Amino acid sequence: MLENLTDRLSRVVKTMRGQARLTEANTAEMLREIRLALLEADVALPVVKSLLEQIKFKALGEEVVGSLSPGQALVGVVQRELAQIMMGDTNQSGELNLATQPPAVVLMAGLQGAGKTTSVGKLAKWLQEKKKKKVLTVSCDVYRPAAIEQLETVTKQVGAEFFPSNVNQKPNDIALAALDWARRHYFDVVLVDTAGRLGIDEALMQEIQTLHTSLNPIETLFVVDAMLGQDAVNTAKAFHEALPLTGVILTKLDGDSRGGAALSVRQVTGVPLKFIGVAEKMDGLESFDAQRMANRILG
Ligand code: GDP
């Protein structure tokens, strides 16, 4: 079991032996504990470093120094700081942007196994039930027939419409045919699933860039597995450099990861987190909540 931040800081406060106030020395000790807590939660090192600078500045400010329980006050500062980073600019809506001439195209990007196909199913369900939208799904993964079948299965499971494709077609042709079908049949949203690789790969990036250019999606969602931990940052960077991402879905938060990837990915790309995956099943999708994620990261 990882020690949570409140316990860590209370431990430091106890050793302060009645010093009610924070000093340079005991602040340094507390910052060390905060650093460890963030690293254990899988927040990437450069992100931890820049965060600590900001926290240090605030920790030595009135709010914490004058407080009767500096440990508790410091936890509050850290929590607010993390939530603030993940919330970002309040003008950026956490919801899916569908404000366009229908059909609104949503392009999914991410490595193989990240949870793209599952997330397409979950989003289709969410869009139908919560937003009353008519949803078409399509798979441009021409490398794995099983991926196309998997998308068909989840789409049928949630009662949306599936646009068939096969491995002999070109991803771009599939995407354009699906878009044409969606236009002619008055779909509100087209969810486009794409191929993923096990690692970042030039050919994969070019393929998804081509798809992006021809589809002109209103949302390009980067799907990333929370269990990737520190590696999530490099993957996010690579996809962000290749594509104008508009949102992130962080999956598999039902696992035991603390979710530090949420913070790292947000800090490194500046792209808002929109949803989290909390189960394999189709209702396992929740809107992203920065406050809750900050609490989770701190344990
Ligand atoms: P893709 O290769 O990116 O399309 O990934 P998939 O959608 O096929 O997902 C890979 C695996 O992760 C599958 O076994 C999914 O059931 C599982 N998965 C996806 N999202 C979640 C989630 O939020 N929680 C859990 N526990 N499993 C998930």
TrEMBL record:
UniProt-recorded name of the protein: Signal recognition particle protein
Function, as annotated: Involved in targeting and insertion of nascent membrane proteins into the cytoplasmic membrane. Binds to the hydrophobic signal sequence of the ribosome-nascent chain (RNC) as it emerges from the ribosomes. The SRP-RNC complex is then targeted to the cytoplasmic membrane where it interacts with the SRP receptor FtsY. Interaction with FtsY leads to the transfer of the RNC complex to the Sec translocase for insertion into the membrane, the hydrolysis of GTP by both Ffh and FtsY, and the dissociation of the SRP-FtsY complex into the individual components.
SUBUNIT field: Part of the signal recognition particle protein translocation system, which is composed of SRP and FtsY. SRP is a ribonucleoprotein composed of Ffh and a 4.5S RNA molecule.
Domain note: Composed of three domains: the N-terminal N domain, which is responsible for interactions with the ribosome, the central G domain, which binds GTP, and the C-terminal M domain, which binds the RNA and the signal sequence of the RNC.
UniProt KW Transport keyword: no
Domain Signal recognition particle SRP54 helical bundle intervals: 1-86
Subcellular location: Cytoplasm
Tagged with keyword GTP-binding: yes
Annotated EC: 3.6.5.4
Binding-site residues for GTP, renumbered to this chain: 110-117, 193-197, 251-254
Family recorded in the similarity comment: Belongs to the GTP-binding SRP family. SRP54 subfamily.
Main location: cytoplasm
